[in-house]
Specification:
By secondary structure, the protein is mainly β. It is built from one helix and 25 strands. A four-stranded antiparallel beta sheet has the order 3-4-5-6, with no helix packed on it. Strand 11 and strand 12 form a beta hairpin. The longest helix has 22 residues.
Length: 402
Amino acid sequence: MSRADDLPEAPPGDVPEDSATSALSALSARRTLLKGALAGGVLAASSAIPGVSGTAHAATAPAGAPCATAPYVNPLVRNRADPHIHRHTDGRYYFTATAPEYDRIILRRSRTIRGIATADESVIWRKHETGAMGAHIWAPEIHHIDGKWYVYFASAPAEAIWDIRIWVLENANRDPFTGTWVERGQLKTAWETFSLDATTFTHRGSRYLAWAQHEPGMDNNTAVWLSKMADPLTLTGPQIRLTTPEFDWERIGYRVNEGPSFIKRNGRIFMSYSASATDYHYCMGLLTIDARADLMDPANWTKSPTPVFTSNDTTKQYGPGHNCFTVAEDGRTDVLVYHARQYKEIVGDPLNDPNRHTRVQKLGWNTDGTPDFGVPVADTETVTQTGSQTGTQVGSLLESGS
């Protein structure tokens, strides 16, 4: 599952969407693994299964599955920014991201995170030649809600390319690669202003949408907002501002807070977000709230005064951000998904530079229960058959298993 869909460690009685399907899948997996374990004389230890409330457990990943703690090959996918990975109840990882041409929405899937690198890529939707949804197709996210697939993305009219708003696609087929994607229109917020980077999650039986938007009269580009949802297409109730650029590190080049993503651990909910211009100054901040508190009260959220994930000259990764969270194949190890560039200096507008690559690494946890993002890891180096280094490994050598 993507941590953006159903937050882990849900309180008792908080049943995520598709929980019945998840429970059946977990039971089936348990039976299959128990048979194999008994045949081999070994019983695997159990681990939490995504998509099921925090008290539900099932067996670990099948024998032969990649070790969750093994280093990933980075970049995972080249020239794909704003990455989003959703781990579905079918056990597959569904990947989408921004293509540098800003003209289409792509989708991949794999039974492993590493396999996304070599999985076939399908174009599930293309921009319009004129009118709405005709330019700047940005930051798609794929979610499975109430038995249907949804893609939230940003776009602008072909004739007004900076009038960017949030739009939604819907697919009722079990297989998002073969079903029909229907345009469900613009997701309306309180103002008709620049808005993007929508993500959705459930907590204590309520569905929420978080997104970035410019508030009229505010001295910023975008702040991050939160609202409850009446359904996957409609906001309901108040819309609250969670964070606006206030620290110097959030206001370099542009005054930006955007790209929210959520993960729940240790009795708290954490919201990461990205800040500043999309060059090497791009970085990530963090908000925290007690999981028992009212998410719709801004006073309950605490903001870190310093960034939690930044460019690193040692590993030579620059502008890390627009992340999401997922979980490894063992169902326990948290994984950070983000994009970054391999060089610091950019000629021209950073938005015209295509080399933001999707990257993944293990997300650590501090002794106080807060996430430890560490630093963006260096590119993976490989060794040829003759033993000499060939430089950066691009993509995974594993089968996608899709």
